[in-house]
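Q: Predict the bound structure with manganese (II) ion.
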Amino acid sequence: MLVVMHKQASAEDIDRVVAEVKRMNLTPHPMPGALRTAIGITGNTGAVDPRRLEVLPGVLELIRVTKPYKLASREMHLDDTYVKLPQTTIGPGTFTVIAGPCSVESEEMILRTAEFLMARGVRLMRAGAFKPRTSPYSFQGMGLAGLKILDRARERTGIGIVTELLDTENADAVEEVADIIQIGARNMQNFSLLKRVGKARKPVLLKRGMAATLEEWLMSAEYVMAGGNYNVVLCERGVRTFSDHSRNTLDLSVVPPVKKLSHLPIVVDPSHGTGKRDYVPPMALAAMAAGADGLLIEIHPEPDRALSDGAQSLDFTAFERLLGQLRALAKPLERTMN
Ligand code: PEP
Ligand code: MN
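A: Predicted complex:
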């Protein structure tokens, strides 16, 4: 349910509605807009008589939100969400490139990558310290030592850090270091993890599960937002299909419906989406054209020696070439690269 306040509603009017919603054992989510404030209501609203709110001073109207996801829906939140970070802002009209190696492998390669990215205007580096691997015998990531390296890279270069949180056990440590906490495809419906990052002070990059529908994906975003963390960036990373010419099928066709149904920003990961480095640049350019707000791309100083996902990682030269093409495409597509 959404309570829309009058343009002239006072702060006291808003507080009164918030207090009444709490008395109804529901959760209020005040959303100040350019013209007026709206107050989203979550919880079991079916049992509630909305007339209790309708009669309060300053209330313009009550709108029932029909979708199962509420806070993540455009019905409840008309304006686009911009996720503001110390280094940049992610949202429509801009185009944010996030790049880095699949895994933190050493301090030397992380610093080298961070310096390379900052010198080219890329302000967010993604690298995993905790890795979800299909085989227990594959490299599992450097863990806490990897987080320390990421922290030092930010300290030395000023780059923002995007890194994956695999389990609630390491939530405090990851939250401390990350500028954005990544939730991986395999954890998209790990509800205890979603509830934990709903309490985090850092934005969340929520990857789409490999067989998740758009509705399931937005319901997962809803878990994070229901906990009070409204800074969610969606990430399309490909889904499982019968196709075997690529690792996954990058579902760029999900971008326009995401924009229609939700106000959350969406970035595209053409690296996991294709699994092959040759296919990454064309799909990256297509993602911008499809309306994505940015990219998550795996790059590596020496892709053929990478400890994970080398086959889909671009080397620095190929990445730089792609950046140039994205910059050229940004203008006709009315985007500012950041
Ligand atoms: C990754 O980003 O390196 C990763 C493991 O991605 P996903 O969760 O999309 O498979
Ligand atoms: Mn990877």
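A: The CA atoms of residues 244 and 274 lie 10 Å apart.
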